[in-house]
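Model: You mentioned two targets. I'll fold them one after the other.
Researcher: Yes, keep them separate.
Model: Target one:
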Amino acid sequence: MKQHLLSLICGFVCLSSAPAQEVFYTDQGIPRDSSFTAEGSYLKYKKYYPEIKVAKAILPDNVAEDRDVVYTVLDDSVNKKRRMYLDVFYPKKRGTYPALIMVHGGGWRSGDKSLQIPMAMQIAKSGFVTVAVEYQLSREAKYPNAVYNIKSAIRWMRANAEKYGIDTSKIAISGCSAGGQLAVLTGLTNGVEKLEGDHGNDGFSSDIQAIVDMDGVLNFLDPQSLNLTRKPNSPDIDWLGGSFAEVPLTWKEASGIYWVDKNSPPMLIITSGFSRFTAGKYELLGMYNELGLYNEHHSFDVNVHPYWLFHPWFEPTVIYTVNFLDKIFNPSN
């Protein structure tokens, strides 16, 4: 009964309606919605899972960091000198390492890159360069600007590969919730010119060689997504610029599943007990299997959507991710 109640509550709060919004403005004058935080999620879930603890950012001894690095500056009629930031975590030992760019969640309108830092630090400990990236949220810019941002950050990684010891042939992307949707879409649109954007770092590739999706939707047109009851200001409607009835082609274009082909990168999907957050999962995995593309699926049978933020699921999530990336990038290990 308790599990069922939590499912109903979370389904309503997380997807069917817009979250409570607390808007503020940054020093650049950028509107931000602070409604999604690790601490706020902890208070919501601890009533049902009293054993959970928020995963903390603990920098391992063998990892160095560069925080708040500017990866591009947007300069158009709307975003005057808008600086975009990322955080880099990399092994102290000199060498060339696979890299992982990590995209936070928050319904495309909330959250920030700090949510990815605990995982970024621990994955870097295992011999990866990890990058927690900022992207434009829906109060600032609608779809597809976030995709443009992320692809620009990937190009920045290749432009700065020598400095951070990045193997430019081994760059993966991961994302959580809305960030998972963005990670899948970014990784499945290698070479798609219309989604490259003009957000800087030209002259370098934004191609991705592996994808990790943590509870991020794969198909907005799947019944588990499309049949949800939504309000006009629901997060996906807000970000995509209208409802499915209003902008159906945008809803399809933003769905990673429609970009799958024989050249798609290997994919790991890690899910919670809420299957709707990865709507389209089984169809996508079926397509991957039919095309002979490597894929993995792991699931936590708990009704906690942002499981990656909390112990006891934090460590297994890191392990699943590291093991998957090792299989793809370091098969001899």
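Model: Target two:
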Amino acid sequence: MDGISATTTALYENEIVTENDVFYFSELPNLVPNPTSFISPVAGSIYDGDSITVSWNPATDPNEGDNLNYNIYINDGSATTTLVASSTATSYTWDISAVNDGDYTVLGEVCDDATTPICSQFYLIDSFEINKVKPIYSLSNFSIYSSNPGTPLAKAGDTIYLSFESSGSVNPSVSFFSGGNAIGNSPVLSSDSNSWTVSYLVDNSDSDGTLDYVITASNLDQEYSSSTPITIDNTKSSDVSVNYGSGSYTSNISVTLGSVGSSWIRYTLDSTQPDCQTGHIYVDPINISSDTNLKVVACDEAGNQSNLLDLSYFFSSSGGSGGKIRKVEKLELSGDSLEKVIEEAFQMLKKKKDPMDINKLKEILKYLEQKIKEINETKMETKIESPRFIFTKNLSYGMTDKEVKLLQKLLNEKNYSLAESGAGSSGNETDYFGNLTKKALIRLQKNEGVRPALGYFGPITREALKRKGWISTNH
């Protein structure tokens, strides 16, 4: 038994006294070995050969100097068989040529070499399958894309295409999940030999979020599942707000449009229907001075379209009774005058005999509609508008492009003026990306914390300005 000895010396009554003592250590307890884990077989896998390598990571023991031994057991669901007994090795080749097909679990035990061994156990987390009767195949060469080009976003009406190859004849079942939930429409599978294509039409009931898939078959070596780079986005763009609603006007108006959270706005002025691909892209306020039917939609980057905004504007100058309207406009919309106008309109409505009275009634009602609209507009709260500047590409020195002109407008508007007068100044923007544009852009990049500040209008700059709400991007 280990211990230490100590010698004590003391002076006692003028005599040196020495005493020797021995102190023994108590024996340290035998501690349990630390458990380990299996490397193979792999849980959930299928094995069809004549042997399986059963292997595990080496265990450690808190007692220095102890040797470790391993016991490995196999269970087929009804009985447990010892595969390895008191072995110091960490792998074993299991001959399965005479083993029945079925599901198996494996249990490990690591023990020290004490007089009374202490053991700890480790497990394979799930069962594995032995199947030597039917062939087992694997999948490879996965590819997935949507019919919505140029974006990883897919919306209702878009089609998702998943393709893969199998190493042999399989009958796969494919499931898609968006945002963690099952999709609304069933996938459609087709094959050419062992090449497979799965198509799936995105439904408006599908949840927003990442698109995942799971592929299973009775003779596949494993379940194949993966998240994809595609995100389902079925959230409709917010409706378009406008500063001038439908109605009659007596002078030119400048119509501004906005849609919170949308990427761009498209409109038409000829009564045709705009959508996310057709129509004018809204950049600047729309000046209207004659009878016009304005139709507007907002779109996000997935192509989700807002409800249609359908506006009709009428102007007195385009009608045939301008004189009478000017006479009506002299009335004040307040107090007794307002009561007189309404009473006159009421009396004329009762008569409906004199055509001239009817025309005058129409003019009065049109005038009232305009005045009420003006009152409402003075009470409207300021609306948040989508950025007017929408960019679709990188811009650099030497380019000639319509979006360069948008960039120059942005720079001038945000007090990074290109020039005080002449080409590039406010109101005189051009399509050419020259030194003035580059220098102004560098000033913006430095002040707004965009690095590197090289005068190149690329993804880094666009993302920074998009976060500030200055621009939108259309991919």
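Researcher: Noted. Anything on target two?
Model: Residues 318-379 form one domain.
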